[in-house]
């Protein structure tokens, strides 16, 4: 009960009913749990400071009490609300860290002696039982606070690990250079798409405006200009992939002309 007597003496002149005295007791149990009071109402206000005392105006309404608390390490916030229903006070406590809401109904006559409302030594009854109820049913335990912080950290880490940067619908995909096909592979473009390769700064595709029979998608003879032409061009004289028009017999095994394909001299001279 250390500290509760000082708190009670600070507010005893403003106590007007059993609800006020019980709120004072619950407030001190929250302070002992590692919290300070920030103010009244649901929303924070400018200039608020953490304090162990009850704020000004805390008991203006006897039907609804609303107090806000913040942990000493500033990592957790509590919102306490208490409703008067007949001879009972119903407490609701929301913990912003674990997003958990707890509640407790307390019979006023069991724990407060309204006849001795301004005497600290006799105003509270069954304090040990009341403290046990508050700790088991209303106040956040240290274990829950640590667990809530750990779970939130784990969720953030899991979300970070599962996040795929390529899945962002607003991400503009990077564009790499167009694929280059080896010289002997069929060109994926239509055989009559003449001139398209002139727009390719990387080259490696079909010819330009001149249709190249060796690169237009038609069957090829297997002749590779870069291998050279025996007796005419050494190997490497034609760069790989360059357009090349043969200017002589290609290969060693091409058949020569037929000796009988030309008429003999003077065959049409009737006087010979």
UniProtKB/TrEMBL annotation:
GO CC annotations on file: endoplasmic reticulum; proteasome complex
InterPro entries tied to this protein: PI31-like, PI31_Prot_C, PI31_Prot_N
Superkingdom, natural source: Eukaryota
Protein name stated in the entry: Proteasome inhibitor PI31 subunit
GO molecular function: endopeptidase inhibitor activity; proteasome binding
Compartmental location: Cytoplasm; Endoplasmic reticulum
Keywords of the record: Acetylation, Cytoplasm, Endoplasmic reticulum, Methylation, Phosphoprotein, Proteasome
Residue ranges annotated for the PI31 proteasome regulator C-terminal domain, each copy included: 182-249
Start-end of Basic and acidic residues biased regions: 141-166
Primary localisation category: cytoplasm
Family: Belongs to the proteasome inhibitor PI31 family.
């Amino acid at each position: 009960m250390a500290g509760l007597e000082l708190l009670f003496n600070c507010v005893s002149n403003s106590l007007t009913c059993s609800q006020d005295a019980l709120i004072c007791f619950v407030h001190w149990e929250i302070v002992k749990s590692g919290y300070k009071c920030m103010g009244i109402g649901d929303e924070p206000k400018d200039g608020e400071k953490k304090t162990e005392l009850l704020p000004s105006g805390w008991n203006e309404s006897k039907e609804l009490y609303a107090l806000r608390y913040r942990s000493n390490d500033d990592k957790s916030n509590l919102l306490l609300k208490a409703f008067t229903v007949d001879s009972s006070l119903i407490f609701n406590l929301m913990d912003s860290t674990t997003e958990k809401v707890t509640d407790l109904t307390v019979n006023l006559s069991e724990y407060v002696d309204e006849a001795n409302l301004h005497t600290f030594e006799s105003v509270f009854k069954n304090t040990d039982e009341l403290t046990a109820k508050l700790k088991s049913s209303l106040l956040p335990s240290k274990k829950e606070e640590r667990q809530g912080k750990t779970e939130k950290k784990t969720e953030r880490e899991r979300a970070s690990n599962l996040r795929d940067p390529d899945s962002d619908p607003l991400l503009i995909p990077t564009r790499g250079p167009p694929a280059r096909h080896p010289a002997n592979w069929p060109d994926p473009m239509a055989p009559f798409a003449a001139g398209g390769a002139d727009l390719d700064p990387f080259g490696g595709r079909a010819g330009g405006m001149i249709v190249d029979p060796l690169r237009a998608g038609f069957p090829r003879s297997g002749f590779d200009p870069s291998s050279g032409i025996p007796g005419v061009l050494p190997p490497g004289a034609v760069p790989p992939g360059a357009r090349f028009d043969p200017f002589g017999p290609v290969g060693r095994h091409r058949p020569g002309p037929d000796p009988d394909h030309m008429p003999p001299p003077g065959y049409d001279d009737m006087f010979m």
